[in-house]
Amino acid sequence: MGETVPANQLKWLCFFIAMAVAVNFSGLFVTLIAPDATLYATIAKTMVLHHNYADIIVNGNDWLDKPHFPFWVTALFFNVFGISTWAYKLPGILFLLMGAIYTYRFAKELYNQQVAQWSVLILLTAEHIIISNNDVRAEPYLTGLIIASVYHFYRAYTRNNFWQLLLGSLFTACAIMTKGMFAIVPIGGAIVGQFIITKQWKQLFAWRWLIAIALVLIFIIPELYCLYRQFDIHPEKVIFGQKGVSGIKFFFWDSQFGRFFNTGPIKGGGDPFFFVHTTLWAFLPWSLLFFVSIFRFIKTGVKNVQGQEWYCISGALLTFLLFSASKFQLPYYMNIVFPFFAIITAQYLYSVSGTKSIKAIRITQAIVIVLMLVVVCALQYFFVPDSFTWPVILLISIVFLLMLFLPGRLNNITMQAVIVRTVLAAVVVNLYINLAFYPSLMKYQAGSQAARWINWHNPQKYPVVQCDESNWPMEFYLNQPLIAMNPDTIKIPPVNTFMLYAKTDIVNGLVAKGWHVQVVAGFKTYWVSRLKPKFLNVKTRDKELIGMEVVVVNGR
Predict the structure, then answer these.
(1) Which intervals hold domain Glycosyltransferase RgtA/B/C/D-like (predicted)?
(2) Partners of 305 in the beta sheet?
(3) I need a surface site. Which of 5, 201, 426, 452 has the fewest CB within 10 A?
(4) pTM, entire model
(5) Neighbours of 109 (CB within 10 A)
(6) Which residue has the higher pLDDT, 467 or 172?
(7) Number of folded domains that form the chain
């Protein structure tokens, strides 16, 4: 368990970890994707502009859905660095990297330095981790906070250390204030699962866990206070179509368990196999190895229950099973247990020593790599991104050549070479996605494009009006307030001059009503988070686009 990596291998592993970190930063300046990222960024922006960090306001209305913690952190970064794309994404990426550090520390405690470093490489190159560091929501925060909580609770148990218990409780409270009470499932599942499987019954009822619960309740008081202040003392507010809604009750029950049982105000439909096929692509290029490692872990573990750690498998599988049973399912939910997935996969790869087994894994990963590269080539052929410039081509080509030739220098038949080649393939794929595909794709998110245009072309500071009830890309990127309007309710032309952002057919309808309209800019828009083949194909794309216009409406 205490083995260390030879110095020459350590240098190479650190180099590849640095590459993996870099690829997670490669989407830092890519425009925020609607709806969630732009919504969350707009909430934090509203907090900063109105100096109100207790209330969550959306479209001028009270919003009861997510807890405050990620908005507070984002607002802090906005205050320090200014309101921008990268200032929104940076804290999420940093929390994920904190998760990588704790993944390393936890894997090293449980296994050794080699497994720890491989775990970090696997985590940082998992497909949906990189995607989530571009399309930042709550999950990067949760990923870091949950593995940090488990690590410190593990240390509190093995070292009998109060300060470790305090840190574990603090990170757990932050996780709860990020996503709600369901955040305790992977944390509690990891710790409780270990004790139950190894029959350490007394540890389940140790005083330290009661102290931890008390500390967590103390640390979440800021969240409870804000909910009480915004909702519970205002029963007259209409939330989810009804009055008398308790923010605290929603936080403790409806926001998570209400979704799980489909009894809360926010409902969904579920597929018990949703997270199985989601993991197949979300944990690429490691997903096939992960499923094998789960099978091998359980097969060997039942023969040596007391000699094996069960933290990772317990935290991962309990969360996996509960999410699968839930009626409310989204792909990025599983990110929070990817550190456990990474450790389980890394310890399996470390345990493989036979030449035939390594060869089988090498062939499997070669097939996965080829398929991923084929998808990239197909995307390039059909989508034809205009951001695929020579600097991007050069960078990707260098990494591609490293993928082809560098593993040979590390002895091509070793497991380390297999891992290195897989890591470099993931870097190639995601450099293309973040530097070529996404920048080109976001040009079809007309709300953010129009906001930037208006920022540069509205010296008169005309009021800006939109016809949609919510347009978070425009609201976030616009450097002035955005006003919502329903043109159907306005019977006579307006008196004052303003800028209007609306669909082309709406503008034509206003002209027919006698409005004095001057078209100043045109855009094409698409719901970029719901990609379909007809849009991805450059030959059929135009039919999928909706015309949008920025017009100056001249008053009477």
Answers:
(1) 65-225
(2) none
(3) 201
(4) 0.93
(5) 16
(6) 172
(7) 3
